[in-house]
Amino acid sequence: MIFVWSDLLISATIILVLLILYFIIRSSPNFISLTRIFYAISFFLLFYIPKLLFVILFIFNELIKFLINAVLIKNVKFRILTFLGFIISIFTFITIVYGIIAGKNDFTVRNTEIYTDKIPKSFDKLKIVQISDIHIGSFYYNSDKLTKIVKIINNLNPDIVLFTGDLVNNFAEEADGFDSIFLKIKAPLGKFAVLGNHDYGDYTVWPTPEIKNINLSKIIFHYKAMGFNLLQNRSVIISNGKDSITIAGVDNWGLPPFRQYGDLQKTVENVSSRSFTIMLSHDPSYWNEEIQYSKKVDITFSGHTHGGQVGFEKFGIKWNLVKYRYPQCAGLYQNNQNYLYVNRGLGCIGFIGRIGIPPEITLIIIHKK
Fold first, then answer.
1. What is the residue extent of each domain of the chain?
2. Residue 9: is it exposed, middle or buried by C-beta count within 10 angstroms (0-12/13-18/19+)?
3. Which of 36, 127, 188, 312 is exposed most, by the fewest CB atoms within 10 A?
4. CB 162 within 8 A of CB 192
């Protein structure tokens, strides 16, 4: 009886907290309330998923026991699935706790090499570091973790650093006070970025459109204050001696219900098809729909998917929660000589944790073939 009442009390408390935070964020949008909702969701999952797994196996156990007893007409004690359900629920609980406490901070460098005959000789062995989806509000003012990310990036000695969007969850205030940390990222050939879908502030209720636009302007300011050249449907040329390459960045474009701000034709209108061109596109859907067919783009860097945040990538197996929505969800993809790399992101959204999909810093070296 004590267990039942405790279970009901915990359930009622979690649901009440979620409702209160929801009404707060609806009436007064701010990132603290939004982040607290994410933590409440995480504790909701922590409490209910293990219990749900146990209940499912318990029901199957009782059903099998009923059928066995109906056939044998005797009282057989069948508890295997109930015991298995108990073990699985405990393991799931521990795994979710790990994801919330440690998994989200297990910053991992993933190395990839690409060989192409199009890149100029003076750019041979070009070192590119990509980061994506910081969702800085999910770090909840933990500057130590962000400083650690910057140190990892600088220790890789990149020539170019690319940031493929989603600096924030929704609100510009999330990035307040962190400009100086990301300004310390060093890249002799430049730091470039594009906006992600969350940077536009589309996922909250704003009192007026003007306030939403002011929020976007502040986010754009933060990108620039961090030292990033923000590319909004435009391209720039990088020179290295007599040779040059092109860096292009398209505004976010996603399949419905995501909005389509990006304009590929405008982005590449001044790009020569002879130039080795790197494209930044937050959502990989745009590569899948259009960019991969462009003769003006050689490699695209995307993020957005977070690699699912929860998944399994070992022993040649690659499974995550978003692969059925995004065919290109994590890692390197290729269509003829057109490449795409999808970064698994650094931050979290919704569930404040990562299980099997650690936060990623990508190092790609491009070799002259």
1. 2-101, 108-368
2. exposed
3. 188
4. yes
- CB–CB of 344/164 below 8 Å? no
The tens digit of pLDDT for each residue in 266-310 reads 999 999 999 999 999 999 999 999 999 999 999 999 999 999 999
User: What sign results for the dihedral spanned by CA atoms 298, 300, 301, 306?
Assistant: negative
Interacting residues of 129 by C-beta distance below 8 A, sequence separation 6+? 153, 156, 158, 160, 161, 162, 187, 361, 362, 363, 364
What is the CB neighbour count within 10 angstroms for residue 264?
Answer: 23
- Cα separation, 190 vs 264, in Å, equals 22
Tens-place pLDDT, residues 94-112: 999 999 999 999 999 999 9
Q: Which whole number is the average pLDDT over 81-96?
A: 93
The answer, yes or no, to whether residue 187 has pLDDT greater than 90, is yes
SS3 5: helix
pTM greater than 0.70 = yes
Instruction: Please tell us whether the domain made up of 108-368 is placed in CATH 3.30.70.580.
Output: no
